[in-house]
Amino acid sequence: xxxxxxxxxxxxxxxxxxxxxxxxxxxxxxxxxxxxxxxxxxxxxxxxxxxxxxxxxxxxxxxxxxxxxxxxxxxxxxxxxxxxxxxxxxxxxxxxxxxxxxxxxxxxxxxxxxxxxxxxxxxxxxxxxxxxxxxxxxxxxxxxxxxxxxxxxxxxxxxxxxxxxxxxxxxxxxxxxxxxxxxxxxxxxxxxxxxxxxxxxxxxxxxxxxxxxxxxxxxxxxxxxxxxxxxxxxxxxxxxxxxxxxxxxxxxxxxxxxxxxxxxxxxxxxxxxxxxxxxxxxxxxxxxxxxxxxxxxxxxxxxxxxxxxxxxxxxx
Amino acid sequence: xxxxxxxxxxxxxxxxxxxxxxxxxxxxxxxxxxxxxxxxxxxxxxxxxxxxxxxxxxxxxxxxxxxxxxxxxxxxxxxxxxxxxxxxxxxxxxxxxxxxxxxxxxxxxxxxxxxxxxxxxxxxxxxxxxxxxxxxxxxxxxxxxxxxxxxxxxxxxxxxxxxxxxxxxxxxxxxxxxxxxxxxxxxxxxxxxxxxxxxxxxxxxxxxxxxxxxxxxxxxxxxxxxxxxxxxxxxxxxxxxxxxxxxxxxxxxxxxxxxxxxxxxxxxxxxxxxxxxxxxxxxxxxxxxxxxxxxxxxxxxxxxxxxxxxxxxxxxxxxxxxxxxxxxxxxxxxxxxxxxxxxxx
Lengths: 316, 345
Ligand SMILES: Cc1ncc(C[n+]2csc(CCOP(=O)(O)OP(=O)(O)O)c2C)c(N)n1
Ligand SMILES: [Mg+2]
What we know:
The complex is a heterodimer of chains A (316) and B (345). Chain A is an alpha/beta fold and 316 residues long. Helix content of chain A is 45%, strand content 12%. Chain A has a 7-stranded mixed beta sheet with strand order 2-3-1-4-5-9-8, sandwiched between helices. The radius of gyration of chain A is 19 Å and the shape is globular. The model of chain A has no long low-confidence stretch (mean pLDDT 95). With 345 residues, chain B is of the alpha/beta class. Chain B folds into 2 domains: 173 residues, Thiamin diphosphate (ThDP)-binding fold, Pyr/PP domains (Rossmann fold); 156 residues, Rossmann fold (3-Layer(aba) Sandwich). Chain B contains 13 helices and 14 strands. Chains A and B meet through strand 2, helix 6 and helix 7 of A and helix 3, helix 4 and helix 5 of B. Magnesium ion binds next to strand 6 of chain A.
């Protein structure tokens, strides 16, 4: 009863050079996080150069979450994300070319340029730009996979601010009642646009899924290995026991909410930058290897940008 | 006389469940023995316990769950108990179900059927009696279907579930549930000659003048159909006015194919609906009919609809707000006097 051809699906997933069940080596984590970082820095540069239109939401600073959790997902698993989705997409697919083409509005983009930054789809990866709206879709997808007997699970990413949306709780409730194999991943980066979490969220984050009897784990780290360790048992439980789990990842974004809208104390940002996931992981690499990865990633982004955006006219 | 509408709908669900194990259903209070507030889902949970989800009161959530299921290859049916509550699912319809296929560049489909009970005249009051079709007909990439007493209701619902890859909003009129469906005999419904178009949600054209002659075209759907037929019969008896009653099965996207020949015969057209007037379904259809049949029209397309008001509980007050056969007949008489220009030969 499977809907997607596994061979086709496999082409849409890039598993960071680790066999299933094994933690990717630091170099693989580092390479993928560097790809995400450089990809998004490049986007901001393209905006500044007037070559990109619309909006973007960078996840710089949060990359360890994306790579650490997604390393556990099997090719047939279904991933849902939100407006801040580039990191999740690249962690899942490694497809910088398709994503940049999409953002540039080119026909070769993964959605033919129709979706842009917030509305991505490739294989079993889906995002949408309405906060919270996609969360019940993940529950439905999880139930569908269970019904089809594929052993696939669904994972859905949401932010602290999105916990203000009622449909999130409808989703928690149904996932718990109907034993949907879905992993909710809440990235608490402490802000929703300009609203600090203390202003937008009463009580606790973990109290919310737990109120629906969804087992929950919390973590505050920028080390992808630690994220990977923390996600291992939850992913196994969701798959093995066919029920939901919620992972709350405390984190911080280095950049503005979208492009120029940052009102946070600079000291706070600086403190977070000291825990940069690239520094944390890079320290464990041989310096020469780290430089080589940095160079290769930069060259790859430069090459794809030159190819796709080089001759592109300014859009404004 | 055919089966009762509720039984036809119930049978369609059973047939769809039987035909494909990808079909499932989510709704509030849909388990047996209750079988849904209007009894449309009776027997399903007993026969297919693992494919029927009796849900919490979460219209947005269940619609979203169905969208996720549809994305992943199932063919879910959602029951919205009272159509008024479709408002809570609006984000899922407008920003998710309808958009996914287009914005993902045709990489996915989202085949789901959202059934909802619309309409008043049962004394349920302002939040349980509305006809909200107009809020849905302007949403691109969905189909809005409305069965009526002259439609092949069972086929319509079964085919919506099994054959339509679009999100379908399937709007059932509450009064219709208990009614027996009319079945054509020798191509006629009583005094009316009848023609049913092709397609999943056909247009049924009823003609008192045997498709030869018509003075008036009444376009309508759903719960207004009996009122339109009655008004047409009275107009014939009292004024010798021959009407066609064009019964839409698909409100959107609008397809004029079966409407235009009648309008070209009659030169006068009236659109009747139970929802409120302003920004109504009739506004869209009137504009399209005028654009397409301007040369044939002798007067602007007239509209009969509910007052721009709440639907009150008390029967007498409700009757002042909702349109019936008398309102249609009165509007028809005004329209027939209107002949503001001579018809282009
Ligand atoms: C329903 C809805 N309301 C408002 C917005 C505008 N908006 C986009 S992102 C955002 C903040 C989201 O905060 P959070 O969930 O914490 O995610 P983060 O941006 O921090 O990753 C807002 C208000 C939206 N996209 N959708
Ligand atoms: Mg946030």
